[in-house]
Amino acid sequence: MWKRKQNRAKRSPKFFYLSLSHDNLINHYQTNFALMQHHQYSLTELENMMPWEREVYLTMLKQWIDEQNSNNNKLG
Predict the structure, then answer these.
(1) How much is the average pLDDT of 35-53?
(2) Residue 11: left (phi > 0), alpha (psi -120 to 50), or beta?
(3) Which of 14, 32, 54, 72 could form a disulfide with 49 if both were Cys (CB 3.0 to 4.6 A apart)?
């Protein structure tokens, strides 16, 4: 008699698998270790990040490191 209205939005659980396919488990742990040791992130902070948020922070960190290396090369 009563029909439940279905949500028409299709969600793909494979989205994050596809978007993060370039990252493997070893790389994930090595990156976490480096961020904790050298940049004072906590494991909790890293685990609570959304996958896209982690990519943004890693990209920004890489740019900052490249700038620092460039400045050091100019001085030395």
Answers:
(1) 92
(2) beta
(3) 54
User: For residue 56, which of 29, 11, 19 has the smallest C-alpha distance?
Assistant: 19
Q: Which of 59, 63, 22, 57 is nearest to 40 (CA)?
A: 57
Is 31 in contact with 58 (CB distance < 8 Å)?
A: yes
The stretches of the chain forming alpha helices (DSSP H) are 15-19, 25-39, 43-48, 51-75
- Global pTM reads 0.62
How far apart, in whole angstroms, are the C-alpha atoms of residue 2 and residue 19? Answer: 39
Q: To 10 degrees, the CA torsion angle through 21, 22, 25, 31?
A: -140
